[in-house]
Amino acid sequence: MPLTAPSPHRPRIRFDRNELAGAFGDLGTDLPLLIGVIAASGMDSAGVLIMFGVMQLFSGLWYGMPMPVQPLKAFAALVIAQKIPGRVIWGGGLAVGLSMLVLSVTGLIDSLARLVPKTVIRGIQFGLALQLATLALKEYVPADGLPGYALAAAGFLVTVVLLGNRRWPAALIVLGLGVAYGLVFKLDFATAQRAIGLHLPGWHVPARADILLGAVLLALPQIPLSLGNSVLATKQVVDDYFPERPLTVRKISFTYALMNLVNPFLGGFPVCHGSGGMVGHYTFGGRTGGSVVLYGLLFLVLGLFFSQGFQQIVHIFPLPVLGVLLLFEALTLATLLRDISGSRSDLLLALLVGLLCSGLPYGYLVGLLVGTGLYYAMQRGWVGLGK
């Protein structure tokens, strides 16, 4: 059953204050990852930001709904931890794109979608919710000390009161608090002035050795997460929020592949779709592709005119505010469990999958395999998790 009533007259693209508010629903996930990979890899920030913005425009216009584009999370974590250079990142991105293209064109992704039950997908979403909530509460909210806690508390109260308010979108008020705080306490005019200037992405052709190395180091750890969250779980969120606009997993995996077949040649960081990002856009007001287009324009402007000092400029904006946005994205993801709460065994299995996904290395692969195996074992009566 869909979680929202069908809206056959919903436009594909709309620009209003609610779409603008929804545009920032995924900022808390994307921005720190992009900052981290630019710093660790030495990639040109202009290429990373401009191509990230272009991919948002592509996704918003293609789908006509808040279909997000996010940095590949497993990719980003490995790049940040091991300081992998850009040439290997571009090679790995091309490897991921080719892999997803094969899954899409051959129809293998459809077979996988039929195999993995909804209960396991809900568990994957819950695991992502746990990771986002942990990131928000342990790293973002405490980032600025006592003033940051006060700012986060104010943002939390504003969001609780205004969440769902179409006239006064919560995200815009919370972001306004963050901007005001940054301008008063963090802005360095000299740094901001030095950052201004026009920059364009460069052209790159990944070498065969870098494609092979990137496939082993980066693509293999990423693909299980992409299958679980970027494709299968995203398709489920589309079914939940846009039941009148059904999408196939083949289409989602095809645009995922297409973006990563273009990005490496223009210096972009590999990207995916994602269930958490769609939930974030939707939670704060996004209902059409307009929210993703507006989000993409933000990164285009940053890349074209402010990439020279990007890392210094973005630190003006307080992390506690991003933590509030991220926390509500996580809470909304967790509430998607409600449609299986009537079955104790399904709920327990989803919770188990979520804990595996969030708590183990390669957790999304483990959760996907263990959860699917347990589900079919339960169906045959071989094991039981309660009635």
Automatic annotation (TrEMBL):
Transmembrane segments: 20-40, 46-65, 88-108, 146-164, 170-190, 211-232, 252-272, 292-310, 316-337, 349-377
Stored InterPro entries: MOT1/MOT2
UniProt key word Transmembrane helix: yes
Protein keywords: Membrane, Transmembrane, Transmembrane helix
Pfam families xref list: MFS_MOT1 (PF16983)
Coiled coil: none
Keyword Transmembrane helix applies: yes
An annotated Gene Ontology molecular function: molybdate ion transmembrane transporter activity
PANTHER family named among the record's database cross-references: MOLYBDATE TRANSPORTER 2, PTHR31970
Name of the molecule in the record: Transporter
